Amino acid sequence: MKITLNRINEDFLFECTNTQGNSILLDNTSQPGAKGVSPMESVLMAVAGCSGIDVVSILKKQRQEITDFKAEVEGERIPVDDAKPFKSITVKFFLEGNVDPKKALKASELSFEKYCSVSKTLEPNVEIHYEVFVNGDKVE
Predict the structure, then answer these.
(1) Which long-range contacts does 72-77 make (Cβ < 8 Å, 24+ apart)?
(2) Lesser CB count within 10 Å: N end or C end of the chain?
(3) What is d(CA 101, CA 111) in angstroms, rounded to the nearest whole number?
């Protein structure tokens, strides 16, 4: 796996591109007019994307009919010397469709405990919590 980063303006805007030519823009979002996401926001996006792929894949194999899938991810940061790494991350999955709530919860559990490489990379330094909602109802 390889990523290239190129600076594309006179400030902090960078384009990160993978070997297939797909790219995202990273920027210093504390500056006005930022045109990309911050590197820390990209970490939250990576957690959402990685676990989202897992959950959808698991549920598709179980023939669950997902008509809509969204995730919200929030990260809590703490000061450590001059840096502010994540202390905890909370992921909320929102699924719509003919989906068994227990299967959705189990798929989420499997993602975070077994499959999601991004969340596994962040362990044990970051606590990751998740919640699952199916058709508007929280799954317990």
Answers:
(1) 73/44, 73/45, 73/47, 73/48, 74/44, 75/40, 75/43, 75/44, 77/40
(2) N
(3) 15
Give Rg (Cα) of the chain: 17
Please answer whether residues 73 and 90 qualify as being in contact, where contact means their C-beta atoms are separated by less than 8 angstroms: yes
Q: Cis bond leading into 39, ω under 30°?
A: no
Query: Residue 57 is which amino acid?
Result: S
Of 4, 11, 72, the C-alpha closest to 36 is 11
Residues in the chain, total: 140
95 vs 8, 43, 59, 89, CA distance in Å?
Answer: 37, 22, 11, 20
